[in-house]
Fold this protein.
Amino acid sequence: MRTSFLFFSLVFLFSNCKNKPQALQQAKAEADLPKDFLEFYQKFHTDSMYQMAHIEWPLKGEKGVSQDTMAKRQLTEWTPENWRLMHLPDTTMSTLKRGFETVGDVMVIERMSYPMVGFGYERQFYKEEDGSWRLIFYGETVMQ
């Protein structure tokens, strides 16, 4: 009987989590991030000079390339000359999938995908010894 109760409790828990609006799940994920990272993240996306100063140049990463109905990743480096400024993502889009992963107190990995347009990306942010955050990796994904 105890295993039946545990089984039904888990089913109830997972079914309730699955039905929550995506925005609430994102807010919960963001709430778990270091407070100083959230402050950095906001400024990084709203102040172009700040953004450029908080990227490790040349920025290593991967470009998503679509060739002959196949999606591939190509190693690349971005420089200040070919970098396109990033803005805060529109999290009101219901198709947006976004998640954060922390590695200790010094790294935050953000993964975002837009399945409706077949595009996604991963960004890695690192906290320097002086306490400042920097973007150290940017990888694009093209989905077929």
Notes: Confidence is low (pLDDT under 50) at residues 1-25. The first strand starts at residue 55 and ends at 67.
